[in-house]
Design goal:
Blueprint: E1 6-10, H1 14-26, E2 30-34, H2 37-46, E3 51-55, H3 63-73, E4 79-84, H4 88-96, E5 101-105, H5 110-198, H6 207-237, E6 246-248, H7 250-267, E7 271-275, E8 283-285, H8 287-303, E9 310-318, E10 321-327, H9 350-355, H10 361-371, E11 375-381, E12 385-393
Parallel strand pairs: 1-2, 1-3, 3-4, 4-5, 7-9
Antiparallel strand pairs: 6-8, 9-10, 10-12, 11-12
Helix pairs in contact: 2-3, 5-6, 6-10, 7-8, 8-10
């Protein structure tokens, strides 16, 4: 039994209405009564009825027609038909039109009546709850459909924005490439004039002037290498890196790299040790790019080594590959920074930042080695230095 449930009793017999009203009140229900169909329909439209008890045989509109009218107004109405045994067939027929159950008059067992009403009320409450859940589900489904449509629209907008950004990025990259290539041309022009001045073909120079021009040439060379690094990284990011492979002597590459950093090493009293086997075979690669990579490794090693330290370079053949290792005696790389050392513009610690540079060197080295199908190994201990090994495949054999 559901407290305060409203039960509509429809019967043209006053005694039956009064009896059912009394019994329902004692059970905690709120009974409403109607003597005929028209009065009942007004109550259905006005009040929220939990269950309806209606006689099947009444003057004017009978119970089956009333059932049809009620369900037109309230599709969730729960109607129990009351009928005499002689009209049982009509009651069963009413159930085909949506009646919930039927009761036979006269009532021999009032508990059966109360149980039927309780089930009818519970049916009504369940139906209303299910209706609310279905309505909520429909609304949620509509919201999901709207969200999906909005998401689809956003996807289209994001794709358009991405395309526009990519176009702008490509334009920016092309513009920057042109700018850097123009800068390279200008720097080459400056370097040529500095070389001409230092040759004293345009007139004699004092020792101080020669020294100044030497510093200017050194800075110009550094700018040229920096611009070349930036251009190479742009090409690598755009997937446009191309190498020109041919047999390359890594021994020669290392010797040239050592020569290029010797001045900086001497300034810090850093010794350069080279361990190069005499019978080391060539590898298939791009000599210019490999020279660029090895020079960066040596420059980094010298830059981050303490004065009077030592930088060593070793070459070893292992099967179809050559291992080129550069070791320094610097502060080392913290373990939590190791995975980032090949990122653009990355400097592992404050000592690297103090040493200057933009943090492009190892990023360039990584992409050059990748372009050659090689690999890089890094071993470092804080306070004890770092060893970086380039593994280059495609050893050129005599076969």
């Amino acid at each position: 039994m559901v407290e305060n449930a409203r039960i509509l009793i429809i019967d043209d017999e006053e005694g039956m209405r009064d009896f059912l009203s009394f019994v329902l009140k004692t059970e905690g229900y709120q009974p409403l009564t109607a003597t005929g169909a028209q009065e009942a329909l007004k109550l259905v439209e006005r009040d929220n009825i939990d269950a309806i008890l209606t006689d099947l045989k009444m003057p004017g509109m009978d119970g089956i027609e009333l059932l049809r009218r009620i369900r037109e107004r309230d599709r969730n109405a729960v109607v129990v038909i009351m009928t005499a045994y002689a009209s049982l067939q009509s009651a069963l027929e009413a159930m085909k039109y949506g009646a919930y159950d039927y009761l036979l008059k006269p009532f021999d067992d009032i508990d059966t009546v109360m149980n039927t009403i309780a089930r009818a009320v519970e049916r009504r409450r369940l139906t209303e709850r299910n209706t609310r859940l279905l309505d909520d589900l429909r609304r949620a489904n509509l919201q999901l459909n709207q969200m999906y449509e909005d998401a689809q629209q956003q996807v289209v907008e994001f794709e358009q924005a991405y395309t526009e950004l990519r176009t702008l990025d490509e334009l920016k990259t092309r513009l920057m490439t042109k700018v850097f290539r123009a800068l390279l041309a200008s720097l080459a022009h400056v370097k040529g004039h500095l070389t001409l001045l230092r040759s004293e073909r345009l007139g004699p120079l004092s020792d101080e002037q020669q020294e100044t021009l030497g510093v200017m040439k050194q800075r110009t060379d550094e700018l040229i290498r920096l611009v070349n690094d930036i251009l190479y990284l742009q090409e690598a990011e755009a997937g446009q890196v191309q190498i020109s492979p041919h047999p390359v002597s890594l021994a020669t590459v290392v010797e040239r790299a050592c020569q290029s950093v010797q001045v900086k090493a001497d300034e810090q009293a850093i010794a350069l040790d080279c361990d190069i086997p005499e019978d080391l075979p060539c590898v298939l690669g791009d000599e210019t790019r490999l020279q660029q990579a090895v020079t960066h490794l040596l420059e980094n090693a010298v830059k981050f080594s303490p004065p009077f330290g030592r930088v060593s370079v070793s070459l070893r053949q292992e099967g179809n590959q050559v291992r080129l290792t550069v070791r320094d005696q610097g502060e080392g790389i913290p373990a939590d920074k190791m995975q980032h050392i090949f990122d653009h513009l990355y400097q592992a610690d404050s000592s690297q930042q103090r040493a200057g540079g933009l943090g492009l060197g190892l990023a360039v080295v990584k992409r050059i080695v990748d372009a050659h199908g090689g690999a890089i190994e890094v071993s470092s201990q804080e306070g004890k230095g770092t060893a970086i090994t380039l593994i280059l495949p495609n050893v050129v054999t005599d076969d």
